Amino acid sequence: MQGDGYKAYETIAKDRPILLVGCWMHCRRYFHKAFEAGDPRAAVALDRRAIRMTEDGDL
User: Fold this and answer.
1) What is the 3-state secondary structure (H, E, C) of 17-59?
2) What is the domain count for the chain?
3) 4-51 pLDDT, tens per residue?
4) Position 19 in a domain
5) Closest CA relative to residue 31, chosen from 50, 44, 14
6) pLDDT tier at 56, thresholds 50, 70, 90
7) Which residues constitute the domain of residue 58?
8) Does 7 map to a domain?
9) Furthest-apart CA atoms within the chain: distance in Å
10) What's the pTM value of the predicted model, to 2 decimals?
11) First to last CA, the chain
12) Which of 20, 24, 32 is nearest to 56 (CA)?
């Protein structure tokens, strides 16, 4: 189940065959903050996501 990190989802998924995954927009924020702080590793994640979004037609 894709969600935004809302803790209640963990309760829903507990003891069920559900895999919780986050969305890219929430995850991207942390990479963007790291990039702005000067962490060059964040650029790799941001570049890869931009490529994927282009392939998916999201950009």
Assistant:
1) CCCCEECHHHHHHHHHHHHHCCCHHHHHHHHHHHHHHHHHCCC
2) 1
3) 777 888 888 889 898 888 777 777 888 889 999 999 988 888 887 665
4) no
5) 44
6) low
7) 24-59
8) no
9) 41
10) 0.52
11) 24
12) 24
